[in-house]
Amino acid sequence: MIDRAQVLKDLQPDRDFFIGIDSDGCAFDTMEIKHKECFCPTTIKYFALQSVSKYAREAWEFVNLYSKKRGVNRFPALVAVLDLLRARRAVQDRRAEIAGLDSLRRWMGAETRLGNPALRRLVEASGDEELAHVLAWSEAVNTAVADLVRGVPPFPYLTDSLDRARTKADMMVVSSTPLEALEREWAEHDLARYVRVIAGQEHGSKQEHLTYAAAGKYPKEKTLMIGDAYGDLKAALSVEALFYPILPGREEASWQRFFEEGLERFFAGTYAGAYQEALMKELDDALPETPPWER
Question: pTM for the full model?
Answer without folding.
Answer: 0.84
